[in-house]
Structure formats: C-alpha cells, structure tokens
C-alpha cells in the first residue's frame, strides 16, 4: 500500500468520488419516480402483475457493458457521455424497484384501504394519503438495494471512458498498481455506505411512525 500516492492524489480521489456520486443519484431518483406508478399498477391489477414485474426484472439480465455500448447507437449520444450511464442505471434500478414497490403496496391491509374509501377518500387521496405512507418502509428498503447496486455498477462505465471511482480500477489493473485498485474499492464502499445512511435518514424523516412500530 503506497500511502504517499494516496496523499498526493487525494484531490483526484475526491474528484472521482464526486463524479461517481453525480452519476448515482439521478438514476436512483428516476428509478423511484418511475417505479412508483408502475409498481402500484402491478399491485392493483393482478392479471398483468406477472407481465409487468417480469418485463421490468428482465432488464437486469442485460450485461451492463453491452448496454453502455448499445445506448449511444439508440439515443444518438457520444460513447463517452455520462447520460448513457444514467439511463442504463435507471433501467437497472427499475428492474429492482418495480417488484419491491408492488410487494410493498401488497403489504397494505385491504381493510385499511376499504376504511379509507368508506371515510370518503377519493382513489387518488387513498393512494397518496393511506397506501403510499404504509408501503413507504418497504419502498425505502427496496431503494437501498437499488442504491447499492447502482453505485457498484457505475464502475463498469470506466471501461468505456466515463470517469468515476471505477477509473481507479481500470488504471490500477493496467499499471499493476494495487494501491489504486484498493483506493477505488474502498471509495466505492464508502460511497455506498454514505448513500445508504442518507436513505435511512430520509426514511426516518418522512416515515417517523415506521421506526416507532418496528
């Protein structure tokens, strides 16, 4: 372990960490926003549930490197564009979050939903004021898995020239320099832990009752 290399390259490590984070948070947020309505539809309409969940889950079987190369041909971006990584990570996030969201809505007792309707809640009010808050803990738990997966997979983008902590892996292997590889690994783990703690904090702020009942 070359500690002098770490100290002399600390600013670059921070720069790559920030770049990695900026590639991670948009797809995590987009996956949540898109998966919420899709997951609710899968929960509400049982006849199409398996189709919806199956199609979304199938996205995850596409190799990430192949997707990074295919997307520029489909959407017309540069191979080096970070947009390719963000779109790919959003698709992978959907593959995980749709099922998690549908399962979370399934945990809402039917009696509670019926009681809300009897009290005069409109269908939209029932979803946002009753079902979504009760399904929230499961949705957040699923998003934590999406977060860890996204931060891990983003490193693959370094193979097509998109700068992130994964750049330390590719450079380290090319130079046979273990210190750089270890720095990339530790940085990726720390970033994943930071995102996870942030999601836990958001969950506690938005869903304080979940902590009291757990």
Automatic annotation (TrEMBL):
Subcellular location: Cell membrane; Membrane
Descriptive protein name: ABC transporter permease
Similarity annotation: Belongs to the binding-protein-dependent transport system permease family.
InterPro entries reported for this sequence: ABC_transp_perm/SBD, MetI-like, MetI-like_sf
Keyword Membrane: yes
Gene Ontology, cellular component aspect: plasma membrane
Keyword match Transmembrane helix: yes
Residues covered by the ABC transmembrane type-1 domain: 17-203
Keywords annotated in UniProt: Membrane, Transmembrane, Transmembrane helix, Transport
Membrane topology label: Multi-pass membrane protein
Transmembrane segments: 23-42, 51-73, 79-96, 145-169, 181-207
